UniProtKB/TrEMBL annotation:
InterPro entries: DUF433 (IPR007367), Homeodomain-like_sf (IPR009057), WH-like_DNA-bd_sf (IPR036388). Pfam families: DUF433 (PF04255). It comes from Candidatus Scalindua brodae. This is DUF433 domain-containing protein.
Length: 62
């Protein structure tokens, strides 16, 4: 019997689906990984700088 892939909403802006980005948590509908956002924050990028780098995401999503 095949294993059914399941999509999981982790937060209102974050989801994880084994069929998308190997199941890594991403921002819904954009496919930017949460890991990338955290790495940018850890490198002292502000929310404004992150949104400027990725203009298709919102401040709320960051």
């Amino acid at each position: 019997m095949p294993i059914k892939a399941s999509k999981q909403t982790i937060h209102s802006y974050i989801t994880s689906d084994p069929r998308i980005c190997s199941g890594e948590p991403i921002i819904i509908d954009i496919r930017i990984s949460v890991r990338l956002i955290v790495e940018l924050e850890n490198s002292n990028k502000s929310v404004d700088e992150t949104v400027a780098m990725y203009p298709y995401i919102t401040h709320a999503q960051v």
